[in-house]
Amino acid sequence: MSEELNETIDRFSHTPETDKPAVMDEVLEEFGETRLALLLEAMPIDERMLRWHSIPSEEQAAILIEMRGDARNSIIRALSPEQLERLIGQLDAQDLIEIGDSLPQSVVEDALEHMDAEQREYFERSLQYNEEQIGRYVDHNLLMLPAAARVQDADRLLRRPLPPYTDSIYLFDRSGRFQGTVSTSQLFTLPGHIHLSTQIDEDAEPLSGEAELYAAATAVQESGAMALPVVDEQNRLLGRVTLHDAMVLQQSHFENLLMARAGMNEEEDLFAPVLRSSRRRATWLGINLLTAFLASWTIGLFEATLQQVVALAVLMPVVASMGGIAGSQTLTLMIRGLALKQVSRGNLVSLLKKELGIAGVNGLIWALVIAVIASVWFSSPLIGLVIAIAIAVNIVAAAFSGVMVPMVLDHLKIDPALSGSVILTTVTDVVGFFVFLGLGALLLI
Amino acid sequence: MSEELNETIDRFSHTPETDKPAVMDEVLEEFGETRLALLLEAMPIDERMLRWHSIPSEEQAAILIEMRGDARNSIIRALSPEQLERLIGQLDAQDLIEIGDSLPQSVVEDALEHMDAEQREYFERSLQYNEEQIGRYVDHNLLMLPAAARVQDADRLLRRPLPPYTDSIYLFDRSGRFQGTVSTSQLFTLPGHIHLSTQIDEDAEPLSGEAELYAAATAVQESGAMALPVVDEQNRLLGRVTLHDAMVLQQSHFENLLMARAGMNEEEDLFAPVLRSSRRRATWLGINLLTAFLASWTIGLFEATLQQVVALAVLMPVVASMGGIAGSQTLTLMIRGLALKQVSRGNLVSLLKKELGIAGVNGLIWALVIAVIASVWFSSPLIGLVIAIAIAVNIVAAAFSGVMVPMVLDHLKIDPALSGSVILTTVTDVVGFFVFLGLGALLLI
Questions:
Q1: 3-state class of B272 per DSSP?
Q2: Quick check: A274 contacting B, CB < 8 Å?
Q3: What pairs with residue B261 in β-bridges?
Q4: How many beta carbons lie within 10 A of that of residue B87, not counting itself?
Q5: Are residues A154 and A21 in the same domain?
Q6: For residue B442, how many other CB atoms are within 10 A of its CB?
Q7: What span, in angstroms and rounded, lies between the C-alpha atoms of B6 and B60?
Q8: Which of A143, A262, B116, B238 would give a disulfide with B332, using CB separation of 3.0 to 4.6 Å?
Q9: Residue B308's CB: how many other CB atoms inside 10 A?
Q10: Is B51 a residue whose pLDDT tops 80?
Q11: Closest CA to B280 of B418, B412, B417, B416
């Protein structure tokens, strides 16, 4: 099997400067643009730009398109206006949509002026859809024929080089409306004079341009086809989504879930400039700081208690941690469930019951374990009792919020993967400290 | 656009019991097995079993295969030996490999006895590979011909119903060795007597059966082909990996990253039985409890200090939280980088420098902000100084461990997504509390 990316990176780090362009060519040759884009992303920005300029200019556009947003922007920012113009001149409408947001308005307009009418129309039609709709990102590279065409017309079309991932021809009527999909594989067996419209695959339903990106990706995967057509509200063919596109969409959907938990997004550059990264991450630290101060404020309510029973201060991390961990387990399950559309109002009550059941069992067990340890450590069964109750209450509160917080956020169209953990931590910290120190104040003084 | 899964779940919850089988049929009809599997996963176990028995038995095997491991096991456990035997009897070798681990040995052996020799051979060849190698999960449903075959032979093959996702024919020589791939789309244009071996696509390299699952998925995506052949060490054709399989492998790779952060895995059942879930999650809570007690122990070293300066106890969550959040940002970036093979020894030093740079900037800024707040809150500039130093040190320590811990774990073949956060939290809690309380003891008493 051929070399994996990390092996290339290691080899690259030992390659003399003068031989690096040759290694880049080799990677491009053997694995294609996606891999070279990943390799560039894995380089510090200085080196990335050095290598970028050694890539043949006719390959650059295709590689730029494959890169994650932030890494791509690091290159766009470093190019001179002339270099940028030359690069953007190579893009088609679909590419331009993809990266248009990172380009100065004037560059986009300039590129549009140099496009032919068809590409300009593609560009404008795509812009009718927003960044979360598949209509914005359709592939225009496909086979289509008028509905009146015959098998022999299709045969002629199929003798030319085919767009990648082609297993069907899309038919349209005189007013440009989508009529249906004909699978190419069955055309072999049919006489040339047969009308294609008699061979339409009734199972192959087109996607709406308004479909959400991941839903579109899932539909392509479930269809069993290599691509699905996408139509607008008037049923006109906008383009298609291939299984390859679906895989890219799926990846960015899941990368986003992963990164959002730490307040970042899927476009985050591994080697973003320090100041840019600092600024972005500072926001997340700031939001979490508010949470932490809320926890501090809760503790502050019990200063007098803490002064008298310092053991409570020592045990605080245990109460907070158990609630936080239990909550994050439920939250993670919910985030995945919401992402896969497996969680909904229809099964919410059952889910809540199940998670509260688990919390009941684990709350009880760990309350007991921790009670014994704390009682022995501080030679005080009362401290054991206090922490036992706090742990049990906190784990149950964590499960309840772990289910409800992401559900409510999702309902409000706020990303639960991004905001869920901050809110959940606030709940488990505040509830945990309040119950623990409050009980301590009541029972231990 | 057709209904999404969560809409089906909602509708399902309002469907009278007697009409539910009809809704299930409709979902299967319109969206296929994957969607029905997702729907079953989204049901509490009792309901899942009720619905399972209303699925026509000839469809059950295909649906079972699509389900996540734990949900699938919930069904297998609930079936009688006769029901299980009937179900397993419908599986082919590839399916049996996929779910074999959840079946009693006797059931597997029984199923093998009823298979024909070819399927049995597939089964045994697959078992030469482990659960992380693509050779175990190859698709045997493909087109192949002897290398001596001609275009007319291929034409005959292509007139029959094709396996899904077919864009090429695989050639093998007399000793069964893989010779190469011929793209089906170019065969139209060629006269029937041409030898297929003259048309081999030299770019289409086969995968090794030993390739790691996600690497294989990436290779299929990068290849531009609909599927890649997989060969064994003697270059014999084992089967193929389609773009559809690649998408499934990619999804489970990323789901695993997501779930591992909370000590779960991608097979976790949304509606696992309470006791089973409790037991699994208890392990993770227990491991994290050790971490929490280590933090408590660190605090315990400074009991005397805390008694005198209770403000320190109040501010402890701020120190722990800032370190934890900063660390989790670096860790998340590293986990993605390692998963995409973008992080390696070759760029480790650059990464470490960059993350320490960010930590320096953010450490300084937040140390200042928090110092001001703490000084005012407790009317003590010294407390401000103490927490400022603790915050800055902890954020830098978090960045350092955020890079190094996952790197070392990966090197030791321990999943950094699973263990990374526990270790990182230990570091940030212990370092944070030690520096904060230690300085407090030195400067405030």
A1: coil
A2: yes
A3: none
A4: 20
A5: no
A6: 10
A7: 22
A8: A262
A9: 15
A10: yes
A11: B418
> A163 with A111, same domain?
no
Please answer yes or no on whether B42 and A344 come within 8 Å at the CB atom: yes
Determine whether the interchain pair B336/A255 forms a contact, defined as Cβ–Cβ distance below 8 Å.
yes
Strands in B227-231's sheet, in edge-to-edge order, are: B207-208, B227-231, B237-242
Distance CA A334, CA B87 (A): 31
Residue A176 at interface with chain B, using a CB cutoff of 8 Å:
no
Query: Least CA distance to B225: which residue of chain A?
Result: A165
Interface of B with A in 33-72 (CB under 8 A): 34-35, 38, 41-44
Residues of chain A with C-beta less than 8 angstroms from the C-beta of B223? 32
Angle between helices A117-126 and A93-100 (to 10 degrees): 40
What pLDDT sits at residue B3? 82
| pLDDT recorded at residue B203 | 79
pLDDT digits over A168-207, tens only?
999 999 888 999 999 988 887 889 999 999 999 988 889 9
CATH code for the domain of B398: 1.10.357.20
Beta strands of A116-236 (E only): which ranges? 144-146, 168-172, 178-183, 207-208, 227-231
The answer to whether residues B249 and B216 belong to one domain is yes
Any idea what the Cα angle at residue A283 is, between residues A280 and A285, rounded to 5°?
110
* Residues within 8 A of B (CB atoms), A 118-137 only: none
Same domain, yes or no, for A98 and A199?
no
Secondary structure (3-state) at A125:
helix
Test B292 with A13 for CB contact under 8 angstroms.
no
Complex ipTM over 0.90? yes
pLDDT tier for residue B1 given thresholds of 50, 70 and 90: very low
Task: Provide CB contacts within 8 A for B177, sequence distance 6+.
Answer: B234, B235, B236
β-strand B227-231 against A227-231: which pairing, if any? unpaired
Whether B156 and B289 map to the same domain: the answer is no
Task: Give burial (CB, 10 Å; 0-12/13-18/19+) of A30.
Answer: middle
Chain A residues in contact with B346 by the CB 8 A cut-off are 6, 9-14
Does residue B119 share a domain with residue B53?
yes
Domain boundary among A260, A292, A325: A260
CB contact under 8 A, A224 and B164: yes
Q: Give A105 to chain B, closest Cα distance, Å.
A: 31
The answer to whether B329 contacts A262, with C-beta atoms less than 8 Å apart, is yes
Indicate if B226 and B279 belong to the same structural domain.
Answer: no
CATH number, domain of B150, equals 3.10.580.10
Q: Does any domain span residue B266?
A: no
How far does chain B reach from its first CA to its final CA, in angstroms?
A: 69
Please check whether residue B150 lies inside any domain of the structure: yes
Per DSSP (E only), the strands in B278-342 are none
Q: For residue B100, give how far its alpha carbon lies from the nearest alpha carbon of chain A (Å).
A: 24
Number of domains making up chain A: 3
Same domain, yes or no: A231 and A211: yes
Domain that holds residue A100: 5-132
Instruction: Reduce the DSSP state of residue B110 to 3 states and report it.
Output: helix
- What pLDDT is attached to residue A52? 96
Q: What is the DSSP string of B332-376?
A: HHHHHHHHTT---HHHHHHHHHHHHHHHHHHHHHHHHHHHHHHHH
B330 is a domain residue: yes
Does B356 contact chain A (CB < 8 Å)?
no
Q: What are phi and psi of B208, to 5 degrees?
A: -85, 145
d(CA B436, CA B393): 9
Say how far apart CA B209 and CA B194 lie, in whole Å: 31
CA distances from B417 to B36, B265, B337 (A): 30, 10, 11
In a domain, B269, yes or no: no
